[in-house]
Task: structure prediction
Amino acid sequence: MSARRAAAAATVAALAATFALALGGTSAVGSPAAGPEKVPNRLLVRADEYDLTLSRGEIGPGPALIQLVNDGEDAHDLQVRLQKGGVTHQVAEVAPGDYGTVELRLKKGSRYQLWCSLQNHRLLGMEAKLRVKRKPVE
Ligand SMILES: [Cu+2]
Result:
C-alpha cells in the first residue's frame, strides 16, 4: 500500500466512524414537531476500482442521505435513479480519499439503481441495487 493510499484509507476510516456516530444519534436530530419520519435514512456507499459497496441493500422509504466515500485511487461519482426510470440524483465527481453526499426522497416499495458514470466504470462493475421497503427498516 502506498503512503497516499494509506492516507486515503485513514480518511475513509475516520469518515466511517463519524458516519456510525451520526447513525447512532439520529433520534436526537430534528424538532419534536417534525416527527421521526423527517429524519433521513442514511446509506454509505464505498467506491473503489471497480466496485460500489453499500452499507446495506435495503432502506426505509422517505427522505434519505446518501454518502459516497471514495476509497479508491481514481475519481468516482454516484448516480441514483429508480430502476424503472425517472430523475437521476447525483453526487458529483469525488477525489480519492474524499466524500460527497446527496439527499433525495426514496419511493416506497421500489428499487433504485446506483452507478458511477465516469469513463467505463459502470461496465467494469461500479453499479449496485437498493431496495426500498414499504415500511421503515431498523
Ligand atoms: Cu468510477
About this structure: Residues 76, 116, 118, 121, 126 surround copper (II) ion (CB under 6 Å). The mean pLDDT is 85.
